[in-house]
Amino acid sequence: MTTTLPAAPPPAAPTPGRPPVENPLLDGARPGGARTFGTEVLAVLGRRLRRLRRGPGRAIGVVLNPLVSMVLLGYLFRDAITLPAGGSYVEYVFAGGAVQVGLACVGPTAVSMAMDLQGGIIDRFRSLPISRSAVPLGHTGADFLVALAALAVTTGAGQLLGWRSHTGPLPTLAGFALVAVFTYVMLWLGVLLATTLRSIETISVVAPFIVVVLPFLSSAFLSPQSMPGAIRPIAEWNPVSAVIAACRDLWGNPATTSPGFVGEHPLIVVAVTLSVLFAVCLALSLRRFRKP
């Protein structure tokens, strides 16, 4: 006697005109959509914060870099350095110190990601049914919280040294929001360095160049007009100078006016530069991170 089993129903045809939507951020995630993806990001974020709590050296470095610059330059040399347009040098240098928080985050993020790539933990993550993008998003989320705490400490130190905002609450908050956006973009630059170089030794050489050299090749601590002729165009077109100039305008602090489009429209330059840099870093980082 032969028993015939009923045939399985055919798969449902996709709705005409509505192809399935693919989200590269959810690549490799378990079924469950955004809720599962958010849980995975928070798990990686918590792991990163626990590691920072056990070894806070990198987080302390993010705080010390801008503080040292502000104290050495803004306080010790406040009477020795004169601005071309006049004004308080402490208020002038504060924007440079605030932006330096974001630059100081590049190295720790890159080193942390490189350590995970070398230590095999990333291979373990790849073997699990989780989103590949949850790992760098968790790293940058945790480091962003550390950066906000460092920015708060830097702001408190600036208040003690004599920095003040003269434009009201909304422009002041807008200036700090701009620093926060710049910082998050720098975190993804650190992820890109880690996924590209994958060597802690090489990253340790490149990171000090970003946190030390870039501010001094900008308007962070000195006016570009006072720099040598060969360095002046670099300082004027440095994207860091545009971020600093926009913050000074929002806070009503002394500024240096540079001729040309960059000096006259810093907010436009900042919006275009940060958008392009974030898109490039995000796309390349996620693409290289998914590769073994």
Automatic annotation (TrEMBL):
Q: Report the PROSITE patterns cross-referenced here.
A: ABC_TM2
Q: Give the domain of life.
A: Bacteria
Which InterPro entries does the entry mention? ABC2_TM, ABC2_TM_bact-type, ABC_2_transport, Nod_factor_ABC_transporter
| Positions with biased composition (Pro residues) | 7-22
**Where is the protein localized?**
Cell membrane; Membrane
For this protein, the record's Pfam families field holds: ABC2_membrane (PF01061)
Give residue ranges for domain ABC transmembrane type-2. Answer: 57-292
For region Disordered, the annotated ranges are: 1-33
Look up and give the membrane topology term: Multi-pass membrane protein
Q: Does the keyword Transport apply?
A: yes
| KW Transport (keyword) present | yes
Transmembrane stretches in the record are: 57-77, 89-113, 134-153, 173-195, 202-222, 267-286
- Keywords, comma-separated and alphabetical: Antibiotic resistance, Cell membrane, Membrane, Transmembrane, Transmembrane helix, Transport
**Which family would the database say this protein is a member of?**
Belongs to the ABC-2 integral membrane protein family.
In Swiss-Prot or TrEMBL terms, this protein is called Transport permease protein
Organism, as annotated: Streptomyces cellulosae
